[in-house]
Amino acid sequence: MNKLRGRPRGNPPTRARIAEAARGLFLRHGYRGTTLRAIAAEACVDSALISYHFGSKQGLFGEVTQLQCAESLALSTVLAGDPAGLPDRLLRAVTDLWDDTEFNRLAVQNEDVMRVFREYLESEVLGRIAEYLGGPDATERAIAAVTVIGGLIFTRYLNPLPATARLSAADVHRILGPTLRVALQSRPRYALAGRR
Amino acid sequence: MNKLRGRPRGNPPTRARIAEAARGLFLRHGYRGTTLRAIAAEACVDSALISYHFGSKQGLFGEVTQLQCAESLALSTVLAGDPAGLPDRLLRAVTDLWDDTEFNRLAVQNEDVMRVFREYLESEVLGRIAEYLGGPDATERAIAAVTVIGGLIFTRYLNPLPATARLSAADVHRILGPTLRVALQSRPRYALAGRR
DNA sequence: TCTCCATATTCAATGTTGATGAATAAATTA
DNA sequence: TAATTTATTCATCAACATTGAATATGGAGA
Predict the structure, then answer these.
(1) CA(B6)–C1'(D12) in Å?
(2) Residue in B with minimal Cα distance to A110
(3) Which CATH number among 2.30.30.140, 3.30.70.260, 1.10.357.10, 3.30.200.20 corresponds to the domain A66-194?
(4) Is there a contact between B70 and A156 (Cβ–Cβ < 8 Å)?
(5) Can you give B40-91 as a three-state secondary structure string?
(6) What does the pLDDT average to over A147-167?
(7) Is pTM, for the whole model, over 0.70?
(8) Is the CB of A11 under 7 A from strand C?
(9) What is the pLDDT of residues B168-195, one digit of tens each?
């Protein structure tokens, strides 16, 4: 920080260095856990420079995050093949992306709601559904069901997508009913060879 | 504020009043948008009293939130009937709960990640899937698929449930494949099925 | 009833935080 | 070369959550 005032010599890529430092810190400590001063220190820069370049902390975060989103999930490949294999390809794309990159770590743990909601979903909903179903694959069926339900809650309420949120309850029932029914079905594992 | 120092006469339920005020403000303005000072003002109390009673802002929020969770989703009723009707009853319970109560408003909009993620899910994933599917009910099928995918992302990555998160990618594919397949299927209700 | 301690409350201060405006120096343009 | 635009530091701000000190009441035991 003991640098000179005024514009520095050359055209150092300071802005990029800030974004890089921010990305690392956001990944490690989440949004709230990362202060502008920490980013500035990491980038060896005065913290005011961040506001200058990115407008605000949210602006910086948005830029760093959107960069990640742009790189993510190459949908073209997924949508290129035959319709029959689409489910598999979609699932594979999602898990490949999220398992391998650091993208998921950008998910700021919303330390408050998220924890409560997770515990509730896990112990109450999932546990009791599995108990109700019984049988050897009860847990797996419950997981599938919780996924659909969690997806509904997430895309309709927690973080409403307009297309989903503006449906009536009846439409939601009609559209998701068959899906949830299949999720809850027992899927005999070794009965059929099937392809992967 | 112009009150006397020291313990007040009688045993006024100040703690409860604070919780009540906090609940209202959290509902209206979310977690970050609600300051301890605002809660204190609403409850006609010094803001230091909140730290005294609840330890911290998070402590207060946790108490208010957990109260809501306890009241929510009467699973017993859902699990009481015949297995065949379970999907419908589950869906109904979820939508009834979340449509009618204020519970969903406690979902602190994680103003940062959530917005980006929502826009991405809506415009990229949902839009392109619907475009790919084509046909009259493409949007509905895309919504169902996005729900499953969003549920997977949410319960496995964003807010990982242990049971779901510790699965291998292959297990995820196996368990959710049939579900997603059905979500993507055309569901002819009033007309004959035509693929694609 | 008197004494003491735990409890409830206000007040004042502290240390962070994100942001802003002024000063300054290099780059760029005319 | 002169003027303007851009990049940077410094000093400061207001808001925030939290903490410590001061003070007054409630309740338990004599």
Answers:
(1) 36
(2) B110
(3) 1.10.357.10
(4) no
(5) HHHCCCCCHHHHHHHCCHHHHHHHHHHHHHHHCCCHHHHCCCCHHHHHHHHH
(6) 79
(7) no
(8) yes
(9) 877 888 888 888 888 888 766 544 444 3
